[in-house]
Specification:
mainly alpha; two-stranded antiparallel sheet; 75% helix
Length: 235
Amino acid sequence: MTDLHLKIIGAVLIAISTLGNTVLAEALGGASAGNMAALTVLVACEVLSWCAIPMYAWLLVQGYQHTRNVLMYGVRLTALAVISEVPYDLATSGKYFDMDSQNPVFALVVALIVLSALDWVQNHLAGAARAAANVAVELAAFLWMVLLHIGVRQQMLSMGVLIFAFVTIFHFLQDRENTMMLTAGLVGALSFLAPGVGVALLHYRNDELGYSKPWVQWLFYALYPATLLAGALLV
């Protein structure tokens, strides 16, 4: 599968999660504690969408390695995260502003900063200082994910933490395909299984872009907030 195929699969899974959390749950009477049908649909759609987590983590690592301008890449991701926050809150909680969970694009922003920091450490430090700096960077990013409640879904999973875990695995093990896939698969399997399925699909990538027109990239940027907003408005 090319990067385009991975992005299409990710977009479809996000749409399923959004529809399950909004339209389908509402059609079944609302996801209240006593409505098991709606809750089952909501959780099933949400868990299914977690297959996309390792795919987006991999795409971020690849994007970081191939971008001509890391700063502008970060600006684009940050802009997407900010634009998506209100649609995300509306689709997930029905509120315009909700601090209980921030959209997972912020996790990609933090992970991009981590990748840049790790490369700086690699190029400027050595020995124990390098190891200590790597641990400090990873720990700081983990705390940001937890404290900001990035991608917290159904009080079951922190997508922010899981995205960060996959990015770390892909960054350090990408030259050892089998070890990388087995490690990522184990982490995914321990996270309600679905991310592990996403890792299995990711194994069949060919690391080709799959498109040549710049507008395709911008289309996928726009799809995320548009899908969230559509789900919120359809309720």
